[in-house]
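Marked as duplicate of an earlier ticket. Keeping the data here for the record.
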Amino acid sequence: IGNGFSENKHQKLQIGNKVYDWKTYTNLCGEDEAQSVSRTYQFITENFSGEAAKATKNAGGTTTILTKHALIMLWKLLTPEEKLHCVKNISLWDDESHHIAGVVEDVEDDIETNAFGEIAKFFIDNGGEVHLFTATYLRNDGRPILSKKYMDKFTIYRLSDHDYLATTGIQEMGRYFVPFDNPKHLMKMLINNIKKEKKEKHIVYFPAENQGFFRNCEKWKFIQDFREQMEKLYNREGVLDLISPDRQEIDKKRLFDEVKTFSVILACGMAKEGSDWEACSRVHNTVLDRGLQVTKQKDGRTWRHSKGKLVVNTTTYVQNCED
């Protein structure tokens, strides 16, 4: 991501009616984690320690550091004084902050603090400026990312899904819940629904082994049978299987390299975040998600701008139960 930002050294970014002037001076993202840590550590210690911090501040303008996990790694290398200089001179922004753990203190059970949670907590406790972006205030385990004590320190801005979708050209977003009786019935509905909209691009999410409807059927046979039906519909190159061991590694590479050649993705743990398939317009979810975070991530696969994409749908298939 950092390299992508710095490919164009000087560009105009328009958000709404306002145009921002973006210039990239220093790219701290290296070829590997060690190089990124080294570059970021050098940059921070040279610019935000002691007299250097004063000089940087007096120069005016805004410095933005784009970093991967380097900040987490180098935080362990900084002295307490250097950490405080960071708090005073750096505005901390975190995308996908639902991954934070450790800032929560008012829940019944203990939460093991993760690395970024420690950094965010340090910034907040020492009066630093922190910006958190998230689709949901809950982590995937259902716990909040922030306690009320910390939440009260933030100004909250809520962005409308529909307002965002309007900027992508998408005019309609649908959500459907469809019951099924057994795995055979589910297979039939999936195939029929995808056939009806063959021209659309689909992602089908399946539960993990021995979870959901896979408690009552053999996972690999179901996946193989479904994949064969999809390959009859789209041919071998049109189907991406991110589940089966014999295809997972090969097709995971195709996810990034051959994005325009396939029409349907079979996924379990992958393809929820960290990958953009702009053409995707249909999500078929065969598992009830544990938390809102995952549901939002799956919805988000369809929310990318793609020419001619006007309608996006998420269909969740729910197994009928006697209880």
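See parent ticket for discussion. The two ends are 47 Å apart (CA to CA).
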